[in-house]
Amino acid sequence: MAGTAKLAALVLLIFSLGMAMPLVHSNLEDPKEVDKWLQKFQYAKEKVSRLHFYFHDTPSGKNPSAVRVAQAPITEKSPTLFGLVNIFDDPLTEGPEPTSRLVGRAQGLYGSAGQQEVGLLVAMNLVFTTGRLNASSITILGRNAALQPHREMPIIGGTGVFRLARGFAIAKTHSLNFTSAIVEYNVVAMHY
Ligand SMILES: *[C@@H]1O[C@H](CO)[C@@H](O)[C@H](O)[C@H]1NC(C)=O
Ligand SMILES: *[C@@H]1O[C@H](CO)[C@@H](O)[C@H](O)[C@H]1NC(C)=O
Which residue ranges does UniProt annotate as crossing the membrane (predicted)? Predict the structure, then answer.
């Protein structure tokens, strides 16, 4: 019996390793792919891509897409919720309606880092899931004064199509209610 259990555990282990393999050994980690990319890079010109989509953040309600993971003793008394940290996995869509076509996800965190004015520290990855951008990502790190009409945040890097990306994102609130915020994003990314 013990032997059978051990075998079953081993089979399970091999099976789970097998499942994990494709992720670990994606072609992106193939040294040949890196060589090819480097060769092309010598002659590559920097390109500019413009992206437009809507970001849906739902911090409350039945199916929140953002969850509170930390707060300070003074957060609840602070007019800016100073010290609050949320982790989010928010859908990105083509149009402003929540039912509009999904083009990717924004995954990351925002922390309330302003005491006088709402000023979020945002660290997030925009992961795209359609067409030639599928699985490529853009990383944003910046300040989002969420109550201002326009907020600009820097792109600090990217992967896939967006390798070595730099640029900026302009966020503009499209609509806001007690459960969710829909934010329009205009992104300019320079990449190779
Ligand atoms: C995106 O890539 C994943 C694998 O990385 C694949 O399963 C999926 O079908 C692709 N989707 C599109 C729209 O190409
Ligand atoms: C808030 O807006 C979202 C997106 O438009 C909508 O789905 C939701 O029903 C609204 N909630 C309330 C309480 O109005």
Answer: none
